[in-house]
Structure prediction request, 148 residues.
Amino acid sequence: MSGSVFHSVLHVVAYAVVKDKQLLTVRKKNTCKFMFPGGKFQPGESAEAAIKREVREELMCDIEPSTLKILGKYVTTAANEANTQLVATVFQGELIGKPVASSEIDELQWIPIMAEAYSIELAPLLTDCVLPDLRGRGATTTTLVVRP
Prediction:
């Protein structure tokens, strides 16, 4: 990121679902990079309200309220917007229901958290921020599950 010139800042929410040492990623239509479910805020919307809405729209699931926690706030380069800095509030928790690609989502992909390389292209938020953080926290051994 050093030497980058950002012309805009994008504030988003994202949702990390961990199951069996795997992380759920999504690819939005007309893009090539996989990222977390989530997206932009609507006017006046809190981060928690935004992530619940985005998960419902993109995965056709609800968030299990008792498991919802903030994983962290990360600043990196946006995956699909040129010269844009991304400020992401990333939540972690469980889903109620089985995730299904919906709305602007073209594809779902579970990726192993501890992999050294991936066969798909991942967004900077994943590669530069969250995957190293999860590995450092030992999050691969969490008991998060996707509820039926």
About this structure: The domain at 8-135 is CATH 3.90.79.10 (Nucleoside Triphosphate Pyrophosphohydrolase). The longest strand covers residues 8-16.
